[in-house]
Amino acid sequence: MRKRKTLVDVAAAAGVSKMTASRALRGDKDVSKASIERVRAAAREIGYYGNHLAASLSSSRAELIGVVVPALANVVFPEVMSGVSDALRGTGFQPVFGVTEYDTEKEYEIIRSMLSWRPAGLIITGLEQTEATRKLLSGADIPIVQTMDCDGEPLDACVGFSHSKAGYDIAKALLATGRRRIGYAGCNLDKDTRAAKRRQGFLRALADSGVPLAGEVTASGLSSIQSGRKLAEEILKRYPDLDCIYFSNDDLAAGGICYCLETGMAVPEQIALAGFNGLDIIEGFPGRIATSKTARHAIGQAAAGIILEAVKGNGSTGGQRIILEPTISLGALQKA
Amino acid sequence: MRKRKTLVDVAAAAGVSKMTASRALRGDKDVSKASIERVRAAAREIGYYGNHLAASLSSSRAELIGVVVPALANVVFPEVMSGVSDALRGTGFQPVFGVTEYDTEKEYEIIRSMLSWRPAGLIITGLEQTEATRKLLSGADIPIVQTMDCDGEPLDACVGFSHSKAGYDIAKALLATGRRRIGYAGCNLDKDTRAAKRRQGFLRALADSGVPLAGEVTASGLSSIQSGRKLAEEILKRYPDLDCIYFSNDDLAAGGICYCLETGMAVPEQIALAGFNGLDIIEGFPGRIATSKTARHAIGQAAAGIILEAVKGNGSTGGQRIILEPTISLGALQKA
DNA sequence: TTGAAAGCGCTAACAC
DNA sequence: GTGTTAGCGCTTTCAA
């Protein structure tokens, strides 16, 4: 096909200089109305759509924002991305994404690769990065927002909540309903540091209350409804007297309730189930599963907002920390 | 912070010219082993990580691949993205994403904005774009893959399957189990053209078999488990004699089964439910919901593969069409 | 095998 | 208000 249109083509078509065309297209002030109109018209006519590469190189700032998540299979992260995408809409910034698969080495490579696009900012998941990654990030000199977690020292800004506290709080809430034979079922705890933090908080609350953990099963690999079923089956076979199970998240809890209902157990009367996140799937079983509702979309929006603000301001996030605490939903558990 | 490292810094540190450094870093042949090692070492030492912006501008091809999806709230699309991300891992290409919210005007703007990053290729969802968008795309002169659908004329390459056929086939399968009082419940049919195509195929199969549609309810807005509950409630109140409901997707079907189980209906003995996609959530109710399992991850992988192939080859996808047909899973329905 | 020169398409900074 | 001059940091081309 014919050569791609450049600013020079627009300028020629509009009968002005390249520079005036550039200014008119970007909405710079100090351009006459007449020029603006002619340039815009010319651009539209010849089907010009700019070259961010050249613009970014020239102005040494790209309107690209990197978003790094551990996985896309867990709906939580697409929801964060969705929040980012919403906040970025209409700003001219474009999100670039990378998936680490909960692997810190991959995370390093992805971040490194993203940085070479000279993004305006980076949104990454969690507070735990390798030393090399932290060095890379702090040398990048762009706003960084760590999301989902605030149990630790952020590199720059962060938006999230304390998973440790979330685990602690739900344990206390479950204890307050009278449950005493409480088990724990979790997945991917070696890699998912946030799930591990919730577990820690959960166990601490039990200990604080003098209630021993009545049983525990864990598995490796990503959480899913199927793994939840399996873990529920396993824990209930090994510890049949449980009156409550805390799952590391809602996917597992959903699998758990399916198993329990199928085997004729009354949920939550006979066995209380609790998960984490407040996913849509929980609404399929209204009131039956306790959970901590997290604000994933809002976290994504807030993270993008911080970057936007920094970019438009002095380039610094000011080390902002936004805490969006989950809200506990006990549903029918509290009456039982 | 100190000025960012450039190729000149690396060259200086390695005692070679900028050009040799560039070649060494990119693994060009015709560079001496000695130079390669010195340059690599120098780069590592000073913490150099390149500038894709400059490289892309200079070589007029960016290692960026645009991925445009209608929504992130529907797990199907993150799964496609996940497939893309997997296929791109280690190739140096980075995915950029955009969300259209099923809005063709937004789609146009997003694609336009993406094109100005001069991506190596574009992966977009579906076959229905506005005339303006199609013009934009065909003028872009890069490989384009349309995903998820193949009912229509692709712009370039496409990876997907016929939704119309998928709807037709599941209807035939349900009819074969003996169901005759079949209802349809759907969401977002005005915007989700693929769901609408499935419905069309479904209705056509019923008509072909001389079985009238026994009832229909629809709603606007994105599908979710909650909307599935509501639709199930509505359709069963209006048409209590149904022996089967086909939902526009699995999210709705999952909401439907929750409603049915809660109200004490036997699934699938009393009422058969069918969805679409084969989501993980269906596994929570093993065998109880019929569905067509779609290969989202594989579709994403294949789409990215086509682009990669085209970029490494002559720049053309050759108008490839990859059909990944869904497989029907009837579970316990077939025995009922 | 290496290097020097010439851009890629745009914008910042300064004239006019 | 508009144009001119220099780059941004790399790669392509061509010469050595």
Automatic annotation (TrEMBL), chains A, B:
Domain HTH lacI-type, chain residue ranges per copy: 5-59
Keywords of the record: DNA-binding, Transcription, Transcription regulation
Presence of keyword Transcription regulation: yes
InterPro entries membership: HTH_LacI, Lambda_DNA-bd_dom_sf, Peripla_BP/Lac1_sug-bd_dom, Peripla_BP_I
Recorded superkingdom: Bacteria
Any GO MF annotation of the entry: DNA-binding transcription factor activity
UniProt cross-references to PANTHER family, sorted A to Z: LACI-RELATED TRANSCRIPTIONAL REPRESSOR, TRANSCRIPTIONAL REGULATOR
Protein name: Transcriptional regulator, LacI family protein
